[in-house]
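so ive been stuck on this for like two days lol. basically i have the seq below and the ligand is magnesium ion, smiles is in there too. i just want the complex predicted, nothing fancy, no docking runs or whatever. if the output looks off dont worry ill sanity check it later, just need somthing to start from for the group meeting slides
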Amino acid sequence: MIVFKDTGFTYDGESFVLKDLGLSLEKGSFTCILGGNGSGKSTLAKHINALLVPDEGSVSVLGLDTRDEQNTYLIRSNAGMVFQNPDDQLVASLIENDVAFGPENLGIPNPELRQRVTQALAEVGLQGFERHETSALSGGQKQRVAIAGVLAMDPQILILDEASAMLDPRGRKGLARVCAQLNQRGMTIVMITHFMEEAALADRVIVLQAGRAVLDGSPEEVLTQADGLEHLNLDVPFACKLSIELQKRGVPVKTHISEDALKEELCQLFLRA
Ligand SMILES: Nc1ncnc2c1ncn2[C@@H]1O[C@H](COP(=O)(O)OP(=O)(O)O)[C@@H](O)[C@H]1O
Ligand SMILES: [Mg+2]
């Protein structure tokens, strides 16, 4: 569904921000992209909806080459993006107008437009918020309105570029829940984040360094590589750190990425002892 083939990209014509990148993201997958500042995450994200096009190699989305301008409209309407700052993304003061903005520009007429708005708001857990003011919302609610605006365009792919970075833990949880639900309903999700608890929700985690994919695997495979992650200046999930400390002291636990799973294993050990 999304294929990067030997992709190279440079902003200044000299230094390559993406280099020899090869990635294939399946339809319906939930991929998390990690990487230090400047590793090329946002640049990669912008290639998925043809905001940027490669200088070398190719990127194809839904089988469409992003360099072909005739494909741009179809690619953009199918790959919706949500960015970091909630306040930068809302365009109207009334929620229903904000969510309607994208599909209206796609030429969707009433009553389908209203129907899409209502449904999109329900999908992000904001049913009945049509007539509320966007300014009165929390950061997490604003990001969910931004997602609703994307969903109302009925895309196949949702890209979140550090969309939870400015949210409190509760807002982050709400956003993560919405993404997991959308993925269960078949949407392809690409989530860029710093938060390991979000990465643990994905079915694939890719770590970028200097525009190349240096780690790629399931969350269990990637997030438990404590040395590798620390070397790349990335956090290691708390459950993983604790598992490793316990192992060092002879406690026979697996290396977990989820606190619940670690808790469960510890309880089993304790009860058996
Ligand atoms: N618009 C731009 N013009 C020139 N250089 C840029 C631009 N955007 C990003 N870069 C550079 O490209 C590199 C990767 O940036 P980016 O993709 O934003 O990384 P990340 O999202 O992982 O922090 C950085 O070195 C950054 O300075
Ligand atoms: Mg970025």
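Residues 11, 17, 35, 37-43 surround adenosine-5'-diphosphate (ligand 1) (CB under 6 Å). The chain has a mean pLDDT of 93.
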